[in-house]
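ugh ok so i messed up the first submission bc i forgot one of the chains. this is the corrected input, ALL of the components this time, i swear. 670 residues overall. if the numbers dont match what u have on ur side tell me asap before i send this to the collaborators (the ones from the other lab, u know who)
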Amino acid sequence: MSTPSEVPAGLPAAPEFVEPLQEWHRLHVRMLVVRPLNEGVAMLVPILVLLFTGNGEKWRLVASGATVAAILAFSYLIWRTTRYRITDDQVELHTGLLTRKQLAVPRDRIRTVDLTSKPGHRIFGLSAVRIGTGQQDVPGTDGLTLDAVTQQEAERLRLLLLQKGVAPRTAQAAEGEDAEPAPVPESEVISQLDLKWLKFAPLSLSGLVAIGAVFGVLSNYADDLGLHPVQDLWEWLFENPSLALFAGFLVALAVIGLVLSIPLYILQFWNYRLTREPDGTLRVQRGLLTTRSVSVEEQRLRGVDVQEPLLVRAGKGAKLAAVTTGLGSKGESNLLLPPAPLSVAHQVSRDVLKVGDDPTTLRLRKHPFAALRRSMFRHVLPWVVIAVGLAVWAPSWAWPIPVAVIPFAALVGWDNYRSLGNALDERYLVTRNNSLVRSTVALQRTGIIGWRIQRSFFQRRSGLMTIGATTAAGAGIYHVTDVGESHGLALADEAVPDLLRPFLIDSTVDDQAERNDWR
Amino acid sequence: MSPKSVLLWTMQAALFWLVLLVPQLVVFLLVDEPPTWEFVLMIATLVVGIVHTAVEPTWRYRVHRWETTPDAVYTLSGWLSQEWRVAPVSRIQTIDTKRGPFQQMLGLSTVTVTTASAAGPVEIEGLEHEVAQRLVVELTNTTQATPGDAT
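and heres the new structure output, hopefully the right one now
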């Protein structure tokens, strides 16, 4: 078997039954090399600095040696203390030396399986397996991760962990060692990378984000070396303010961003394909150096999110994200479609949700005019405050900058209002928000597990409210922003019948009585 | 909601403003020739603090509501900004009771009802202990009768 990312996404020959691993297993022994490779890169610069500053004193040599040894020892200990097994009911992981952690996940609660191979993993044919459950991810915890096993094993685990409804015991009984393999069910390709989509790469501004990230890392190292380039530059700029320099800087940033964005798009989305697997999962595979394969249980898909960053939207493009439980927050694991033409996004959304018409193309209801006032206010006011602040406390050249931003802020505020909208069909609640990254979410009405209805002081004065539909999936809550009060309540009441109704009536009766009731 | 909540919120607000005010006062008294802006800031903190502590708790008490039906838990909370929260009983995952130090002093409890959504806990503040206990038992019983958690 070659690397999973290159296999045409069919199942291996003997389909349904994948035997559970009743025995305890270790992570692959090659992790002894891979972990230091993946994590040691971060330590490389400090070690080199340690080695090559100064005049080659002995302690520097010893210290670097000790650091390397510590990294190696650490990865050995992790390998030595980590064990996992997969029984009929649970996945169990024991890990940690000083703090022993024992994680167990019931197999029927597994919603997603995410296979990630960083370059270090790939050289050695390994893959990290992240198992997501219905639990909302708490920042800092990362679900249950096996980092790492061989790619074959990872592929096997993916099939094993997501196979539902196949009772392992009976399956084993039915299929002996040389049982005739059943016809291999085909996985259906929903979408795959089209090189024409590359035109959306520069529009997605990913290049600028990358510059920001690289800059962050570099300045961190510079700090370690006792240099403060940003501060120096800032002070220098403060003393010699120059419009030409500022403009030149912006142009340079834009050009580098554009140039970088294309290789970045290729790095992230090379070999992208979205398939529907025979075991009832949706699977996204992508990546050039770091390859990823994210499998989502289709039944748990609660909707989709069509995201249109401003420039991508101008180029009639969009990307698509899944609204589902069990995905980590790291690295766009919920991505269903990279930036691509809007028509493709709608088509993929239709195929993924198995509906005739993409709910996100529904005609959306506009929000009241008062919402425009609020939107303008929210976007423009901060810049006015900054301008006033600078005018009072900063040198005289500073305040025109925020003033120059105000017209753009006003445009964004206006566009933000234009974005607002909501709709309801038999199965989905659709809501659209934001301007810079316009997001149109179609959320399954059956996935809504509560409401949060907010009315700020100013909203109450203009008869508006923000309705939040809470759900176990995705962001946890999706807002219908600044909707008119009566329409908003009617919408919520209709979307989930009977939940809000007693409340609506109760809010009109004498509250004092019901309060006394519980005193 | 127990009327004692007004007292609870008053204490909480007063504590918050004291935490802001006391360090300012200490600095003001210890430094020789404190700048005028420091004095202005301190007076401003004092005035805003007194107004907030006097107004917010009663206002809040007049806003706050809660109710449970066999199907759902509702709360209305806030004062300047107000928020309704609704969680269907069938989606409830955990029911917790919590008592802070002030709450213990006053014999009050907060009941927190969480669902599978990270954004959806419904908090019922300022309940008398026995009311809270009764509520927890009642909710636990209805919750157990309904399967599934909608993840």
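quick check: The radius of gyration of chain A is 27 Å. that seems consistent at least. The interface with chain B takes residues 109, 111, 133-136, 300, 325-326, 447, 449-457, 460, 468, 470-473, 475-477, 496, 498-500, 502-503, 506-507, 511, 514-515, 518-519 of chain A (CB under 8 Å).
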